[in-house]
Amino acid sequence: MFRVIELVLKRGIRRGMPLVLAVALGVVANRASGQTRNVRPSDELRGEPGREARERGMPRDEYDRSRGGDEGNGDFPSNEMHLAVDANARLAYSRANFRRLQSSLDVAIRRMQYDFEHSQEMADAARAEQQAWDDYRHARNAALKSVMDDPKYKANVAVKEQLGDQIAEVRTAYFHDRRALDHQSQTVVDTDMMRQLVNMATVKLDYAQVATDMEVAALRNDSKVADARERLRSAGSRVTALRDRFDRTVRDSQDLATIRDRIEEARVQLIASEAFQNGANIVATEALDYAYYKNRFVYSFPDYVPYGYGYGYGGWRGGYRY
């Protein structure tokens, strides 16, 4: 090569030194470029293809995926995004499990109530209470039959009902006039009408008290009414005792206690899942924003083999190499 350069220089001296120097330098540069560029430019930038993957002992494609893509870009927060998805799924499961346990508690209590209401013991007690009430009502009507036929009783009841009708009419007229005044933004109270209503109500109570005293006296002197009242009280007490016992059974049930404990555990898990999901979403958002910010000026282009002009250009991967 140097022999060729020597001949070119001797001839170039007679023809012009600038042209000779340009040709000589071009030959040397092309020779140097041919000796140094034995690998792909992308390999010079990234090293030998697959070298780091082989050192790690894993296939090339698996190594690229672990780095975030085929180009080895591991800035995408895949772990954080997967964690956010997992947190959302855990929250959905915790919420569904909590509601399922609450529903199971309601179903268990309703089943116990249904069994109690339809039990033979409760049915007999309710039937006895209803029969005692019917007996007491018949005995009371029989005892009051003589009182209702009394002219004094009838007169007091008639006057009481008449006064009741009059009070209703006066109240209707009073409130009608009051609404008209309120509509005109005038708060006026008719003291005479109010006094009339109070007097009529007092007289009505007097007549009603006379009729009530006659009824009480007739019922007190009737032994059948007293016996029926006692049976009704006993039947009612039995039903009340059965309901109290059922209430204690529900409160002391081990099955319901177990379900309540599971509900409390599910409530704690739900609170923890909500906190975990909130934190995971925040971390994933921040990681994704950071990845976008970090790579805001990075563009991915495929590698290509340079033409080897020897001017120092080539192997362009998103920028020029000098």
What does it look like?
- By secondary structure, the chain is mostly helical.
- Among the domains are: 1-36, no CATH class; 124-273, no CATH class.
- Helices cover 80% and strands 0% of the residues.
- The chain contains eleven helices and no strands.
- The longest helix has 41 residues, at 254-294.
- It is elongated.
Helicity range: over 70%
- Poorly predicted runs are 12-50, 68-72, 308-322
Q: What's the N-to-C terminus distance?
A: 27 Å
- Number of continuous helical runs: 11
Q: Could you describe the largest sheet, including whether it forms a barrel? A: none
Radius of gyration: 52 Å
Q: What is the H/E order?
A: HHHHHHHHHHH
Structure class = mainly alpha
Mean pLDDT: 77
> What proportion strand?
under 5%
Quick structural overview:
This protein has helices spanning 2-15, 17-36, 41-46, 51-56, 60-66, 78-117, 120-148, 151-183, 191-220, 223-252, 254-294.
Indicate the topology:
Elements: H1 2-15, H2 17-36, H3 41-46, H4 51-56, H5 60-66, H6 78-117, H7 120-148, H8 151-183, H9 191-220, H10 223-252, H11 254-294
Helix pairs in contact: 1-2, 6-11, 7-9, 7-10, 8-9
Structure characteristics:
322 residues, mainly alpha, 11 helices, disordered C terminus
